[in-house]
Amino acid sequence: MLLFAFLLLTSALASQRHGAQAESNLSVKLQFSSAKEQNGVQDPQHEKIITVSTNGSIHSPKFPHAYPRNTVLVWRLVAVEENVWIQLTFDERFGLEDPEDDICKYDFVEVEEPSDGTILGRWCGSSTVPSKQISKGNQIRIRFVSDEYFSSEPGFCIHYTLLMPHHTEAASPSMLPPSALPLDLLNNAVAGFSTVEELIRYLEPDRWQLDLEDLYRPTWQILGKAYIRERKSRVVDLNLLKEEVRLYSCTPRNFSVSLREELKRTDTIFWPLCLLVKRCGGNCACCHHTCNECQCVPTKVTKKYHEVLQLKPRSGVKGLHKSLTDVPLEHHEECACVCKGNTEG
């Protein structure tokens, strides 16, 4: 009887211990689930301080392969000298989980300006590579987040370099109002942007969305001759022609021309700065013994209209006047070899 009672008591104590352990495990799971519902990731890790004295890079774990799930990483780059800026350049190999409704909700990398907590940008997906970012001071923060579900590859790699404030590149004059720059400097700054949206953001950071909407409002004044006459240029890939024709014959070919130089408009900035036009080019096989100089010249010229963004200083007012306009450029449709002179005797 004593042995039977002892066994009953031992079983009861074990059952109570297992019950308490199960309740504790359930509580931990509920807390973890609640945390996941709040931010979709594990608790943020402490940021890693990287002292920057030379060029370097940081990247997602396992780059250029798929990064791990359920990860939060924070880097704070701090330049050794106080009077320098830090420039971030994203590697062309960039790919994170795609956004939902154009919002990076799940996996993303973002850049923050530590001096005022401003988020300079948050990026995900793989359709475009993020643009260069420049700090306002000698520090900048980078945060990478991946949730518990899908991961992508290759992740990201960010190269950082030090910049002296007076040695900045074309995009760095964002610290100064564009209207305060000479036209030549502004022209160089404009050349650094790859989309109209980026350019308008730079020109009008406070009202760029309104300016962008105004720019594309479909009024007859803006549509202009390029739509009415239906004579916009079409890009022709001359590389599809036979190799012999491409190398040796006198044919219309694609040439890049500067709009300011072509139109002789030094008082205006155009975006894009250059356009492709068809101009005569190639070798001429003039075999006449009386021909002194054989040149490839156009025999049929067509004027075509190209829609571009035009920036002009306002007369007596600060700021730039922005408009979509059509610029006429000559395109050579047909070419021929012409003898330009005769040999003596």
From TrEMBL:
Compartments reported by the entry = Secreted
The cellular component terms of Gene Ontology attached to this UniProt record, alphabetical and capped at eight, are:
cell surface; cytosol; extracellular space; plasma membrane
Q: Which UniProt keywords apply?
A: Cleavage on pair of basic residues, Developmental protein, Disulfide bond, Glycoprotein, Growth factor, Mitogen, Secreted, Signal
**Signal peptide range in chain numbering:** 1-22
> Is Secreted among the key words of this record?
yes
InterPro entries reported in the protein's UniProt record: CUB_dom, Cystine-knot_cytokine, PDGF/VEGF_dom, Sperma_CUB_dom_sf
Please give one Gene Ontology molecular function term for this protein. platelet-derived growth factor receptor binding
Listed PANTHER family: PLATELET-DERIVED GROWTH FACTOR (PTHR11633), PLATELET-DERIVED GROWTH FACTOR C (PTHR11633:SF5)
What name is this protein filed under? Platelet-derived growth factor C
> What organism, scientifically named, is this protein from?
Terrapene triunguis (Three-toed box turtle)
| Lineage, uppermost ranks | Eukaryota, Metazoa, Chordata, Craniata, Vertebrata
As recorded in Swiss-Prot or TrEMBL, the protein's gene is named: PDGFC
